[in-house]
Amino acid sequence: MNKLLAEEIYYLMELGRRFELAAKEHYMQGDISGFLHLDIGQEALSVAAMKAFEKGDVFSTYREHVMAIARGIDPKAVMAELFGKVTGVSRGKGGSMHLFDPSHFFYGGDAIVGGHIPNAVGCAYARRYQGIDDGVMVIFGDGATNGGAFFESLNIASAWRLPLLFLCENNRYAIGTEITRVAPFLEQAKKAAPFMPTVEVDGMDAVAVYEAVREAQQQIQRGHGPIFVEAFTCRYEGHSMSDAGSYRSPQ
Fold this sequence. Notes:
Elements: H1 3-28, H2 43-52, E1 57-59, H3 65-71, H4 75-82, E2 100-101, E3 106-107, H5 116-130, E4 136-141, H6 148-159, E5 164-170, E6 173-174, E7 177-178, H7 179-182, H8 189-192, E8 198-202, H9 206-221, E9 227-232
Parallel strand pairs: 1-3, 1-4, 4-5, 5-9, 8-9
Antiparallel strand pairs: 2-3, 6-7
Helix pairs in contact: 1-2, 1-3, 2-3, 2-9, 5-6
C-alpha cells in the first residue's frame, strides 16, 4: 500500500467516525427516526474493504454508512437519507438501513439479516453470464452465518464457481447474543471451509484487510470460484441505538 492510499483510508476512517458520532447525536435529539446501526469501531474494516474492492458489485449489511461513504457516495446524501430527505441517496425512502446506489454499484442495507446474500449470488451469476469479471462482494455479520440462506448461497456459489467474495465481519455479537452461544465455534469461516478457500484477517488492521480483500478479488477474477474472508473486528456501540449493550463490560 502506498502512502497516498494509506492517507486516503485514514481520512475516510476519520470522516466515518465523525459522521457516525454526528448521526448518534441527532438520533438522540429526535432528528433521525427509525433504526440506527453505528459502525463506530469497525471503520478500518469498512473503509479498507471498499477501497480494495473498488471495481465490482457490493452488497452490504444495514450497518453501512461508512461503507457507502468509502464507496464514493456523497456523505451529505447519506446524512440526508438518515433524515428522510428527498436529497438522500435513496430519496428519503430507505433511511439508515437502506442506502442503495446503483451508480456506485452499491446495493446496501437489506433489513433481513442475511437476506442480501442470495441476491449477491444471483448478481455474481449474472455478471459471469454477461462476461464482466470484476466480481461481487457480499458483506455480512457473524449472526447471518446461522441462517439457511447463508448455507444455500455457499453451496450454489461453490457448485457454479461464481466470482463471489464472502466477507464476514465477525464482531462476536449478533444483536445481544455472543456468537459462541449460538454456534459451536468463534471462527465462522469453519462453516465455509467445506465449500471454498477461507482466509482470516484482523479486521482492526486496515492494511491487513485491504491486502486480504484485494487478493481475494484477484482470485475470483481469475476464475477460481468463490472465497470466504473472515475479519475479526469490534463495534464499540451496541447493536443499534436501541441496544444499551449492557451485556458487555466496558473493557
